[in-house]
């Protein structure tokens, strides 16, 4: 088949009614549970400790009887049983590649994939990128790390499978990325939301060039929250003169599990044949039913056919808002918006404050502000005594002044209902990140 004739829209899976999805998942889950129970001492112990037998799962509701898996357990499992831990279900001879998670807490953790896992990732990620509008005639500039990063080689495999042209540029050389986009007439840029804006800034300042003139039509962002934040998205689209779409994934599960369709109203969960999605109350662990149009909670995912490092009720720590209203595209997968990491949430006098929401408000002051900001925390959270200290960088040629700081404080109070103390700093004084931007600085 010619590349131009291929389709990566799986109508059967992507428009499947909820009851049919549940029936398919229960069947696959039973087989997966048997597999992890027999192949992994880590999971066999966890299931036994919970008094659960793989055969107990008769419906998806029964999944709630099984134990969660926490990231800290995976780290311990790997420290005790290197290299891939006792939650690995295959010998190393069957592992074709190893990825590492970004290791925000210091020690990297490793994720192995078998030939089968690699193929399943390609199928699932292709579905996501197709949903986001990637086609065989696209020329895809890779503006994310290619190395150990789970967003690197799996995307390369997928882009080549779809038949688009993959340009493996990566991070670390901003001018090379921009030059390559121009000389190869790239149509699509994949990157983090912060790097998309950083590139625009660098091109303007150092190369005297507007990235809007480069001909990029699609900016596909992920790997950090932000692509779904209205002010950030609007700015990316303005800078690049392109459509911005977002996707969500996780290093321990799959590069992308949810992605936006042309309606761009949240990321459809697209892989019910690969993962079971649960939304839980992060405090009690109770499963939330999706019987209201919009539900907010923590995303928990379980693999249905993973060979090497399967996850059972893995707590992603992603706080998501789930929209189950029908979508004009016909896809039945609920739409997710990731509003932040559960670990990043702050509580000021009982009000939940998400750093990404703060950034959204701050960015609405552009061009008076550059969009770079950091929240300064003096004691371990999540509870913070007001006012919340925020350092905000002014835009090019704008001197920091008290009146602007006061206006930002006031709008934060109006929109997010908390008291802030904004300190303005001159343009180009806050650090720029090529991959994930840290919105919180801990000083304790
Ligand atoms: Zn849709």
Task: Describe the fold and architecture.
The protein is an alpha/beta fold and 444 residues long. The protein has 2 domains: 1-339, 3-Layer(aba) Sandwich (Rossmann fold); 346-442, 2-Layer Sandwich (GMP Synthetase, Chain A, domain 3). The chain has 11 helices and 19 strands. It has helices spanning 11-14, 18-39, 41-49, 71-80, 115-131, 153-162, 174-183, 193-206, 230-240, 355-363, 402-416, and strands spanning 95-100, 110-114, 139-142, 165-167, 188-191, 218-221, 243-250, 254-260, 267-269, 275-280, 294-303, 314-323, 335-341, 346-348, 351-353, 369-377, 388-394, 420-425, 440-442. The strands form 4 sheets. It has an 11-stranded mixed sheet, sandwiched between helices. It is globular, with a radius of gyration of 22 Å. The mean pLDDT is 93. It binds zinc ion. Zinc ion is lined by residues 261, 263, 268, 327, 329, 331.
Using brief descriptors, characterize the structure shown.
single chain, 11 helices, 11-stranded mixed sheet, 2 domains, globular, Rossmann fold, alpha/beta, binds zinc ion, GMP Synthetase, Chain A, domain 3, 444 residues
What topology does this entry show?
Layout: H1 11-14, H2 18-39, H3 41-49, H4 71-80, E1 95-100, E2 110-114, H5 115-131, E3 139-142, H6 153-162, E4 165-167, H7 174-183, E5 188-191, H8 193-206, E6 218-221, H9 230-240, E7 243-250, E8 254-260, E9 267-269, E10 275-280, E11 294-303, E12 314-323, E13 335-341, E14 346-348, E15 351-353, H10 355-363, E16 369-377, E17 388-394, H11 402-416, E18 420-425, E19 440-442
Parallel strand pairs: 3-4, 3-5, 5-6, 6-7, 16-19, 17-18
Antiparallel strand pairs: 1-2, 7-8, 8-9, 9-13, 10-11, 11-12, 12-13, 14-15, 16-17
Helix pairs in contact: 2-3, 5-6, 8-9, 10-11
Bound molecules: zinc ion (ZN).
